[in-house]
Amino acid sequence: xxxxxxxxxxxxxxxxxxxxxxxxxxxxxxxxxxxxxxxxxxxxxxxxxxxxxxxxxxxxxxxxxxxxxxxxxxxxxxxxxxxxxxxxxxxxxxxxxxxxxxxxxxxxxxxxxxxxxxxxxxxxxxxxxxxxxxxxxxxxxxxxxxxxxxxxxxxxxxxxxxxxxxxxxxxxxxxxxxxxxxxxxxxxxxxxxxxxxxxxxxxxxxxxxxxxxxxxxxxxxxxxxxxxxxxxxxxxxxxxxxxxxxxxxxxxxxxxxxxxxxxxxxxxxxxxxxxxxxxxxxxxxxxxxxxxxxxxxxxxxxxxxxxxxxxxxxxxxxxxxxxxxxxxxxxxxxxxxxxxxxxxxxxxxxxxxxxxxxxxxxxxxxxxxxxxxxxxxxxxxxxxxxxxxxxxxxxxxxxxxxxxxxxxxxxxxxxxxxxxxxxxxxxxxxxxxxxxxxxxxxxxxxxxxxxxxxxxxxxxxxxxxxxxxxxxxxxxxxxxxxxxxxxxxxxxxxxxxxxxxxxxxx
Length: 506
Known about the structure:
Low-confidence stretches: 1-21, 461-506
Number of domains: 2
CATH superfamily of the largest domain: Signal recognition particle, SRP54 subunit, M-domain
Structural class: alpha/beta
Number of helices: 24
Number of strands: 8
CATH class of the largest domain: Mainly Alpha
Strand content: 5-15%
Radius of gyration: 26 Å
C-alpha cells in the first residue's frame, strides 16, 4: 500500500533502493548516538561540540577512514560548529548535524554527481584498471549494460587480461548475458595488440563506446603500471576508471594512491557496497585520489551498479534516509500502469488480495524488508527490531504462496474464505491455518486504512504529511510505532502490517 501512497510524488509511485546501507551501518549507529545527545540538549557549549567531535573522530577512524582525511574533516567541522551563530541558534544540535552532513557531502565529492564523459568522437574508450579480485571484469560488463540501456549507446568490450586463466572467456560469457559484443579471442596476443585490434574492430562496427578490461595483479607492481601506460598510449581513453573493492578496507586507499600516481584516473568505481565493510575506503577515495566516485557496485547481479550520489550517501550515513534514490529505482523496476491502476483502486477504497500480492512482489523486487527499513528516514530502530525478531525476506515468499493458493474468486473476495477453504489454502501453501488468518487480518487492516486515507483527503492529503516533519511525522500521524514493539502502525509498512512479524522463520 505504501508504495502507491508515494505515487502522488512519483509517476511510478514505488520505492527502490540506492547504494546499500549495510556498509555504513556501524558508522551510522555511532554517529546517530553522538547526534542524539546533541539534539537532546536545549543549548550547547563549545566543549559539548568538541567532545562530540572527538567521538565522531573515533567513529571515522574505526570505520577505516584514512587518518589525513579524518583530521581535515574534524578540523573543518569543529571550526564551523563552535561559531557563535551555531551555539546561539534556536536549535544548535540540528545546526551541528547539518554542518557534519555538508562536510560529509564535500568529503564524498560534493553535491554534483559526476557521470561518464562520453562526449567525444566514437569509439569513446573507457579503460578499466585495478587489482585482480576487485570485481573489474564483472564491473566492466555491468557498466556496458548500463551504457547500452541508460545511454542508448552501442557498446563493445575487450579483455586485455592475458594473465588470469579464463579471464577473456569470462568477459565473453558476461557479454552474452548483457547483450553486448566482445572482441573475439586470439590466443597468445599481447595486451597492446589486443587494444589496437579492439579499436579497429570498434570503428568497423560503428561502436559508440569501447570498454577495455585491463589485466590486474595481486599487488601493485611496475609491470602492471607499464602495461597500463602502453595500452593508454594506444587507445587514448576518455575515461580511466579505477575499480576498488570496498572489503579490502584501508588497503583500498593505498591501492588508489598507487594507481593515481601512475595513470591519469578520471574516476573510481567502488564494488561490494552491499557488503558489511566499515565503509572507510569509500569515504576516503575522493580525498585520496582527487577523483570522483562515479559508480558503486551494489550486488552480484549484472544490473547491480548505480551512480554514486554523495549527498544521498551522506544522508543515509546520518540516518536521514534517501527518498530520492528510492523513487528513482522505482521508475526502473515497477510498471507505471500497475502503479496507476492500484492508485485508482485505492482512491475508491478498493483493495483485494491481488493488490496485496502485487505490493509484496514490489517489495521483493526492491530489496525486501530490511532494505526498505534501512532506506527510510527514522526507520533505523524498526530495522533493528526486524533483525532481532529473526524476520527475513522469506516472509514475503510465504505470504505470496498463501495468496497463490487461493482461487481467483477468493483473492477478489477474501470474505469467501471460511474454515474449510482456509485449511485448503494452508495445505496448498505449506503453511498453517493461523498464517492464513494473519494475512486475511492484514488485508482487513489495509482496507480500513483506505477509509482513513479517504477521510484525510485521499493520497494527496497523505503525501502532504511527508513535507511536515519528515517520514517520522507521517508515520506518527498514522499511528506508526517509532519504537520497536510499539503498537499500531501504518499497514503496508514493515511493523505496521498486522501479523507481519509472526511470519518470521519457523
